[in-house]
Amino acid sequence: MKRLVLMGAGHAHLIALEQWVKAPLKDVELVLVTPSRWQYYSGMIPGWIAGHYTVDQCRIDAEPLAKAAGATLVLSRVVEISADAKQIQLAEGSLLAYDWLSIDIGAKTNLESLRGYTGPLLSIKPLEQFHQQWLRHIDGSKAKARDLVVIGGGAAGAELAMAIAHARREGAETDARVTLITGNQGLLPDFSHRLRKLTQRKLTKLGVEIVEQRAEAAGRYLILTNGASLRPDLVVAVTGAESFSFLAASGLAVDTQGFVLVNECHQSVSHPEVFAAGDACSRLDQALNRSGVHAVRAAPVLAANLRAATESGEFTAFQPRANTLYLIACGDKVAVGSYGPFAFSGKWVWRLKDKIDRGFVGGF
Questions:
Q1: Would you say 69 and 21 are in contact if contact means Cβ atoms under 8 Å apart?
Q2: How many CB atoms lie within 10 A of CB 320?
Q3: Beta-carbon-side half-sphere exposure of residue 311 (alpha carbons within 13 Å)
Q4: How far apart are CA 353 and CA 359, in angstroms?
Q5: What pLDDT is recorded for position 139?
Q6: Residue 12 contacts by C-beta under 8 Å, 6 or more apart in sequence?
Q7: What is the pTM of this model?
Q8: For the segment 130-146, what is each residue's pLDDT rounded down to a tens digit?
Q9: Ordered domains of the chain (ranges, CATH)
Q10: What's residue 183's pLDDT?
């Protein structure tokens, strides 16, 4: 019997497993390899920090899903892929051969600008690691982080800064300070002027200081573009995605940043038995934002193509929609959002986001 290995329990793989529960793959040994049975949903982590969700409401248990889909669950971390030999190496040293491989492992936080920083530093990815570190630094630490800096001007950075500021305000930590360092490109550079204004207004209302400069590490300090220095109690990095180094060394074709290059069917352009989805890959034909939205929408196509691969069927191309709905939680059960050229805000936007997020996690 031939073997299909799912590497990582990302959104796309979870949705694929859910589909295969209803319509199992035929004559295939299915294996899911992931470091943890828990898959944290990024869209709800700021809500957890803000106090709106418990952690169990923000994560999916992959173990019963894998079992229901007929998959063997291997709780381990992949440290090497040998694409030509069609095998992966696990952290404990064992090798696992495959006939087909699908990669959905996400990405790491790019910490290049913070190399050498010697102060307390958390990175948003991987999310499970961030969850544990946040608990240690915020709930488990005797010394409260009064001066906290979030670095990253994208939607995730803004959302996290607002969640932290709201939690601090609800906890009556009146002397707490939250600073959002966006980089020289400013706040939400990939979004419309209207959405930037709405988000900036919410950040200001929550008392978040916005610094539209770049920060470089200098030991215990952060040095801004204008030469000013900061010495925060805690830094949270939300500074973009970086690929796992073993992807570039795998023999698979990768882009200049080390992400797996795939075609419109999310199939490796160098090794047709390998597929990839989510943040771990880059499309050869078009650029896609590293967003969970695309991973979720690509999932049914990935599932169909993996089935086609195992049954010698026809592949299907994933065509992203021209416009994408983006919803950004603002900490206090208000959200801002955009769809194409339109931007909007209010409690109703939060209720919509809450319904979508709870529905996604609850669906598993």
A1: yes
A2: 15
A3: 13
A4: 10
A5: 63
A6: 104, 277, 278, 295, 296, 298, 299, 302
A7: 0.92
A8: 999 998 887 655 456 78
A9: 2-107+243-311 (3.50.50.60), 109-240 (3.50.50.60)
A10: 93
